[in-house]
Design goal:
Strand order of the largest sheet of chain A: 4-3-7-9-11-13-16-19-21-23
Largest interface: A-B, 34 and 34 residues
Largest sheet of chain B: 11 strands, mixed
Strand content of chain A: 25-35%
Radius of gyration of chain B: 21 Å
Structural class of chain B: alpha/beta
Order of helices and strands of chain B: HHHEEEEHHEEEEEEEEEEEEEEEEHHHH
Number of strands of chain A: 23
Strand content of chain B: 35-45%
Number of helices of chain B: 9
Largest sheet of chain A: 10 strands, mixed
Helix content of chain A: 10-25%
Oligomer: heterodimer
Structural class of chain A: alpha/beta
């Protein structure tokens, strides 16, 4: 039999990103109304079209109802009790990283994000977002040589308003859903990526989101455009300090891939999940969607979801272009009282489109982990294919795992395959590994990482190692 | 509200049975199911309202069993024809439930009802008059196969209710046939209670004529060590819903389900299943097949619920679908809701068309395309049809399906 105490004795490493950076911030008053939106827009010196976009979204949001169909239970969010803009105070304009507040650099240093020049050895360009604003973006000059634009979305609004006006809200319209409308009205910052025609982005791009204040929400917006025959790999990481209160995070990510372009979007989400009693933690309501507009374009989502008290997230692909490809690889781990309702939508519109879904859910403690996905074959999607696989692993007898796949086909000349299974950590396998001298916790983490291998194989190298460690860490003390 | 008025105008309040009154009262608060709920959102609203359009009929027109001819070895019952049965033989007995037994059991069931999940039952029980409720208590073994008919009359809304108690150690083959008539609606609710160690091979065959509608609800409670095998077939209905709810009340029971629905023209046929395991060591093997042609719409939604108490449950659910036309639609949603950790649960779903390679192979051997498609379809149908008891030799279901194709 598995020795319960053995596992519980394992060093319980606390959430190591839970510190708060003591930095002077500029916050606006709590609440949400037209004036607040105008104020945010004014602070960011935005053009009129963007303010109109925000106000229109706000009007739509006011008429919408918070969705309640997800298998999630959480206390009602008071949208008037949130600060919608919070930014670290700094000098008016910064020309180089040396002018960034050292405390901020230190923060990102602690998080393992290399912003300073000497640490730029890893070949990854980073856009670091702290509360509502982007602090710094590295490797910009080198990227610019290739014509790649990688900057915060606020800068993009100033420097490339035409691109923003052309693409913003085309994948996730403001009226798409409650949280997307809220984001469209109040989004403060995020990343913007533009890969010109024929360019393979010379390095991985990455953005790092950090929530620092406990009473402000984070509403970032990411827009990635890959022109014809270009390709890019984008990584996203997130952490937040430990607070007793719940912080709202409602992001929107839009991807656009034109002919023969490919976008790979990987996320390791490690927001603070609340303590063992479920106090505190981030409410994570995210709308992520990619549009495969061009022929033979490809969008691939891979995600490792380990944090947040509540996760509501369905990275999706609209497969419009002929022979376009959508992929979704996900590992969602919930422990203690975490709740996750996550999955994907693959909407096949164009002919000969293909999609693959691999989802692995692990629920431990008293948590709840649901896979919810939609695969739809439209009337014109002749010769299209989908393959989905969702596996769940249950650890302990109080966790729950649900699977809700919605499958809809209107095209006889297409094929959909879906399979799902649920299992637990096999005691035989555990015993076998232990009899070979492998420590108990190592055996468990080997088995979990074996279970998730299909997904980890899809992650960029640095992320795969981090994800593996993260899972082992999160599961400590939960196997019994 | 209209539907309630319709039932009430049909007869005065005093003539309503207690059950009818209770159900009417429940319907009064929300006379129609919530169209946004998962169970009803795909249901065609105008077809449902067409279902309710006909006037309520309590007296059947003369009914001729279509075919095959009655044979002596089968017990044949027709709900609504004042059928009285009391068979007490050496090995077995089949008796009608007393009015009190019926009332007590139905009332108990109603207390577990949920407005959306059991709307069809509530409607059925508020419409069903005394004559149209048949309650049976079956005991013993080596029982001759039983066939039970429910039928609708043209231009009317009909409700039939069947309650069956299978006593301990009982073993029986039972075929239920629901027949629609031209321009008719039939509401059929069946309540099955399997006592310990009992086992049943239950067949449900439902087919209609042009523009017939069906709401078919099946509620099964399985006690320990019981085995419930269901083979079902629904075709030729303008609008049909087959709602199955199975509860393994203390686990340790076996459930096998093989169902099929075939839609053509602008028909909509849907199957909803909910299987709950309320004890350990439960077993489920379920396959649901759909075939949608022309402009029709086939729907399958199946949920498997495994609470903490249901350790060592072994459940599998498969939804296989054939989509044969550009204008047809298939929706399928198998679901798992699991809390127990020591379980084996899986589900799968596929939507495709006839296998082109197989068709090509047969054609190279000189078989025409029509024949080759028929061959493929017959193998697709056969798995389910061979699971329906009594039907094999006598009902020619396969021929019926293939020749109408």
């Amino acid at each position: 039999m598995v020795n319960e105490n053995l596992v519980k004795d394992v060093v319980k490493e606390p959430y190591k990103y839970g510190f708060v950076t003591d930095i002077e911030t500029e916050k606006i008053e709590k609440g949400l109304n037209e004036n607040i939106i105008k104020l945010i827009s004014q602070k960011k010196e935005e053009p009129k079209f963007l303010l109109d976009f925000r106000l229109k979204a706000f009007k739509k949001w006011q008429k919408m109802k918070e969705p309640d169909w997800a298998a999630l239970g959480y206390k009602k969010i008071d949208y008037q009790d949130i600060i919608y803009y919070s930014a670290p105070k700094q000098k008016e304009k910064i020309s180089s990283l040396d002018e960034v507040d050292p405390k901020l650099l230190e923060t990102f240093d602690k998080l393992g994000i290399p912003l300073t020049e000497q640490k730029k050895l890893t070949n990854v360009a980073v856009d670091a977002v702290f509360d509502s604003v982007s602090i710094a973006t590295t490797f910009r000059e080198e990227l610019a040589e290739h014509g790649v634009i990688f900057c915060s979305i606020s800068e993009a609004v100033k420097n490339h308003p035409d691109l923003i006006e052309k693409y913003l809200g085309t994948v996730v319209p403001a009226s798409d859903n409650y949280f997307a409308a809220l984001n469209s009205a109040v989004f403060s910052d995020g990343s913007f990526v533009y890969i010109p025609k024929g360019v393979t982005c010379p390095m991985d791009l990455s953005s790092y989101f950090r929530i620092n204040s406990g009473d402000s929400g984070q509403f970032e917006r990411t827009l990635i455009i890959a022109e014809e025959s270009s390709s890019v790999s984008y990584l996203e990481g997130c952490t937040a300090p430990m607070f007793d209160t719940n912080t709202l995070h409602a992001a929107v990510v839009e991807l656009i891939a034109l002919d023969d372009a490919s976008i790979k979007y990987s996320t390791v989400q490690n927001w603070y999940a609340g303590d063992e009693e479920g106090i505190g933690g981030i409410f994570n309501f995210v709308t992520k969607r990619g549009k495969c507009l061009g022929k033979r374009s490809k969008i691939s989502w891979s995600q490792v979801e380990t944090g947040s008290a509540i996760t509501w997230k369905y990275p999706s692909c609209l497969l419009l272009g002929e022979e376009s490809v959508g992929e979704f690889y996900s590992v969602a781990l919930t422990n203690n009282l975490q709740q996750a309702d996550t999955g994907t939508k693959m909407i096949h519109i164009g002919p000969k489109t293909k999609s693959t879904i691999v989802s692995k859910g692990i629920s431990a403690g008293k948590s709840k982990n649901s896979y919810r996905g939609l695969v739809k074959m439209g009337t014109k999607a002749t010769g299209s294919r989908n393959y989905s696989q969702c596996d769940s692993m249950l650890i302990g007898d109080q966790a729950s795992a649900n699977t809700f796949p919605y499958i809809k086909s209107q095209q006889p000349n297409s094929e959909i395959e879906h399979e799902a299974s649920t299992c637990r950590i096999s005691e035989d396998q555990l015993f076998y590994l232990q009899s070979r001298g492998i420590e108990f916790e190592e055996a468990v983490s080997m088995m979990v990482s074996g279970f998730c291998r299909d997904v980890f194989n899809q992650l960029p190298m640095e992320f795969a190692a981090e994800a593996d460690k993260l899972l082992a860490l999160k599961l400590e003390g939960s196997v019994g | 509200m209209e539907i309630i008025e319709k039932i009430k105008t049909n007869k005065s309040n005093e003539n309503l049975t207690e059950i009818q009154k209770i159900c009417l009262h429940k319907l009064q608060s929300s006379p129609l199911p919530n169209p946004k709920s998962e169970l009803w959102r795909l249901s065609n609203k105008s077809k449902l309202s067409n279902f309710l359009d006909y006037s309520v009929n309590e007296k059947d027109s003369k009914f001729d069993i279509p075919y095959p001819k009655n044979s002596q070895s089968t017990i044949r019952l027709i709900i609504g024809e004042n059928c009285e049965i009391k068979l007490i033989e050496k090995n077995y007995s089949i008796q009608q439930l007393s009015e009190d037994e019926l009332k007590k059991y139905i009332k108990e069931q109603i207390s577990f009802f949920n407005q959306n999940e059991n709307w069809s039952d509530l409607l059925n029980l508020s419409l069903s008059c005394k004559n149209n409720i048949l309650g049976l208590k079956i005991n013993g073994s080596k029982i001759p196969p039983i066939e039970i008919f429910s039928h609708a009359s043209s231009n009317s809304l009909n409700a039939k209710t069947l309650v069956i108690f299978l006593e301990k150690n009982c073993d029986v083959d039972l075929l239920q046939v629901n027949l629609g008539k031209e321009n008719s609606s039939l509401s059929q609710s069946t309540f099955f209670c399997l006592k310990e160690n009992s086992s049943v091979n239950h067949g449900v065959v439902s087919f209609g004529e042009s523009r017939s509608n069906l709401l078919n609800s099946l509620n099964v409670i399985q006690q320990k060590n019981s085995a419930y095998n269901l083979g079902s077939l629904h075709f030729k209905f303008n609008y049909a819903r087959f709602e199955i709810s199975i509860k393994q009340s203390a686990g340790n029971a076996k459930t096998n389900i093989k169902g099929m629905q075939i839609t053509k023209k602008d028909e909509q046929i849907s199957t909803y299943t909910k299987i709950e395991f309320n004890g350990p060591n439960g077993f489920l093997d379920q396959i649901n097949k759909s075939l949608a042609d022309d402009k029709s719409h086939a729907i399958f939604e199946g949920s498997i619920i495994v609470p903490k108490i249901a350790q060592r449950t072994d459940a599998s659910q498969l939804s296989r679908n054939l989509l044969l036309s550009n204008l047809a639609q298939i929706d399928t949603k198998p679901q798992l809701e699991i809390i127990a950790d020591d379980v084996k649960c899986k589900h799968g779903a596929t939507i495709s068309q006839l296998n082109e390679e197989e068709l090509f192979y047969m054609r190279t051997r000189g078989i025409t395309l029509t024949e080759a498609s028929k061959l493929q379809l017959s193998s697709y149908f056969q798995e389910v049809i061979s699971f329906i008891p009594i039907s094999k030799d006598r009902w020619d279901l396969l021929d019926k399906l293939l020749n109408e194709n």
